[in-house]
Here is the input.
Amino acid sequence: MVTTMSRALRYLLAAYVGAVLATKELERRAVLQCGCPSDCWCHRPGSSLFRWVLPIGHGGRA
Ligand SMILES: [Zn+2]
Here is the structure.
């Protein structure tokens, strides 16, 4: 039971990290472009990693 859960958690974590890396790569190739205002949280150092996988309060096209 516990093993199954930790396996599922590890799978989810791997999928999440994969999504972060994939979107980061797309952003690097200018496939994805953030149209946010410059005061959006995703412009903070380090936060841009999660720009596409944590769309909370983000993506305002003001
Ligand atoms: Zn943003």
